[in-house]
Amino acid sequence: MNVLAIGAHFDDIELGCGGTLIKHVKSGDKVHIHVLTDSEYDNYDGTLIRGKDAALKEGKAAAKIIGGDLKRGSFKTKQLVYGVELIEYLNEIIDSNKIDLVYTHWSHDMHQDHNAIGRATINAARHIPRVLMYRSNWYITDEIFNKRFYVDISTELERKIEAIKAHKSEYQRRGDQWIDFVVNQNRNDGTEIGVGYAESFEVVKWLV
Question: Which end of the chain, N or C, is less surrounded by CB atoms within 10 Å?
Answer without folding.
Answer: C
